[in-house]
Specification:
The protein has helices at residues 7-13, 50-59, 61-77. With 83 residues, it is mostly helical. It has one domain (7-77). The radius of gyration is 13 Å and the shape is globular. The N and C termini lie far apart (42 Å). The structure holds zinc ion.
Length: 83
């Protein structure tokens, strides 16, 4: 096996990158109020583009990786409410 899947690739695979409008304050998926970064604290959605987060990985690898891991964990635990 080659390199293990990075958190960035995992977040992409889960479809977490859904850039929100600049003045969007609620998640388009679950309507939870977004945090200061535009990320959803409920369903794990990341309100920025993958390219933007990739750039942040360059300047703050540890911090950005942490955010990605946290959002991935939230998405895995998230169960959309049906009906
Ligand atoms: Zn959400």
């Amino acid at each position: 096996m080659a390199a293990q899947t990075s958190a960035l690739e995992e977040a992409k695979a889960l479809g977490l990158f859904q850039p929100q409008g600049a003045f969007e304050v609620h998640c388009g998926g679950c309507h939870t109020r977004l945090n200061g970064l535009g990320d959803c604290p409920s369903c794990g959605l990341i309100g920025r583009s993958a390219a933007d987060v990739e750039a942040r990985l360059g300047s703050d690898p540890a911090g950005t990786e942490k955010v990605l891991q946290a959002q991935i964990a939230k998405r895995r635990a998230y169960r959309p409410v049906k009906s």
